[in-house]
Design goal:
4 domains, 20 helices, transferase, transmembrane
Length: 451
């Protein structure tokens, strides 16, 4: 996959058929399969519940394995899924009804077929997917890469240019919304998308392989919610087969897990400079968003933090607007890919995303942060009312982006200092490390984490 990523980048010929998308899906499937086989050889007490569920204890026949790897509805664009779902789909245990279920609430099937009727939900996905494709085709003529590269783009006002780059991002997303919704519909039609039913209402869920949630993404009020609604199955893969796998048993994921996940996600996407521009800036945006949520948001809640204040709706609107406009800036290099075009389109809008992030980081590194903390504590009715830890700090990275890049770096430095101190106690280090020694230690730590 990496060889083909580089070949595509070097050739730079849009007329050549690109197979890297299918290979990206295969990398997720094959690596997950290997981990599942590995888990199947371990004692049960060493596995988490998700690992127990996905573990492969009996090696599948070649035909079943090939069917899983080359599953047609998700072959070229995803979604990827674990082998256990495919096996349960084949033997129809995926559609078993829990004992004691009300017969009137059990999903309807055709004759002796065990898969619930999936024609209607699949048709809805097909219509939705085609609608998104039409949206892409209609908007694509007005909002495309050439629009931003045309010299006349600079003649527009700044706000008009910001609107155009946001429209370009939405148009680009519409293409993926359409493709992924169509593939999800194909999976639903086959029965693979089945995800159980509500025993009280009888409502059937077909969201097992849902890859995107356009509504949540377009209305997201922070970067974590924005990224969490995009390419969900890749998030699942990075979380379960990278982030948690490099974390020693019994320990909380830290710097090593985040770095390995970030690097894996970056290499998986390819080697265009634009990817790394977006990833690095997105990491710092996660830090900024976390600081705003922790230190500014409480002022728009009741003193105990339990209910919204009278101005909370204005904060929500501002959060939505800033998130959408900022993320539109962040994804520009993801669209243009090359170094020169990425920096040029950022320049056409005065690097507003970079400036805003740097200004926010400086603000929260200044005494203003302490002032906000003091004011926030003075509003609280009791000390526990003010959260000391953002909920985002205990969540896994989204698409490989750390939730707090600054904190991750601080943790890395602290971990390295602790290791040097440990060696000093053992007599292997008797003096304070020099700058070169600390640099070498950091490089060694990163190398061992990635290797």
């Amino acid at each position: 996959m990496s060889v083909n990523h580089l070949t595509r980048q070097i050739m730079d010929n849009p007329q050549v058929v690109d197979i890297t998308g299918a290979q990206m899906v295969l990398v997720m499937k094959l690596s997950a399969f290997c981990w599942n086989v590995h888990d199947g050889r371990l004692p049960q007490d060493q596995l988490s519940d998700p690992q127990k569920y996905a573990a492969i204890t009996k090696f599948p026949p070649v035909l079943d394995y090939a069917g899983y790897v080359l599953f047609f509805p998700g072959l070229f664009g995803g979604p990827a899924f674990d082998y256990v779902a495919y096996r349960r789909w084949i033997d129809t245990t995926l559609f078993e009804v829990p004992p004691g279920s009300d017969p009137s609430k059990v999903p309807r099937t055709r004759k002796k077929r065990k898969i619930p009727r999936s024609g209607t939900p699949a048709a809805k996905k097909a219509v939705t997917g085609l609608t998104w494709i039409v949206v892409f085709l209609q908007l694509g003529s007005s909002y495309n890469k050439d629009t931003l590269l045309d010299p006349s783009f600079l003649d527009y006002s700044f706000l008009r240019r910001v609107w155009i780059i946001h429209a370009l991002g939405f148009t680009t997303r519409a293409k993926y919304y359409g493709v992924w919704t169509l593939t999800e519909g194909a999976c639903i039609l086959s029965g693979m998308g089945y995800n159980g039913f509500d025993p009280k209402t009888g409502k059937v869920f077909w969201n097992r392989l849902e890859n995107i949630d356009p509504w949540k993404l377009e209305t997201a009020q922070n970067s974590h919610a924005y990224l969490g609604s995009w390419n969900k199955n890749t998030n699942h893969w990075l979380r379960n087969y990278v982030y948690l796998r490099v974390t020693p048993k019994g320990k909380k994921p830290g710097f090593r897990a985040s770095l390995a996940t970030f690097t894996t996600s970056a290499f998986w996407h390819g080697f265009y400079p634009g990817y790394y521009f977006s990833f690095v800036l997105g990491s710092f945006i996660q830090t900024v968003a976390k600081n705003f949520r922790r230190h500014v948001r409480p002022f728009f809640l009741s003193p105990d933090g339990g209910t919204p204040g009278p101005y909370k709706r204005f904060y929500d609107f501002a959060s939505w607007l800033v998130t959408q406009v900022t993320m539109s800036f962040v994804v520009l290099p993801f669209i243009f890919l090359t170094f020169s075009t990425s920096t040029y389109v950022w320049q056409t809008v005065n690097y507003y995303g970079v400036i805003a992030v740097v200004a926010s980081l400086v603000f929260f590194a200044s005494p203003a942060k302490g002032f906000l903390l003091k004011k926030s504590r003075s509003r609280a009715e009791r000390p526990k009312a003010v959260r000391s830890t953002s909920t985002e700090s205990i969540q896994e990275p989204t698409l490989g982006l750390p939730n707090d890049a600054i904190q991750e770096f601080d943790d890395a430095v602290q971990e390295i200092k602790s290791e040097i101190e440990s060696r000093r106690r053992k007599g292997s280090v008797v003096t304070m490390p020099t700058g070169d020694e600390l640099k070498a230690a950091i490089e060694d730590k990163i190398g061992r984490t990635l290797g």
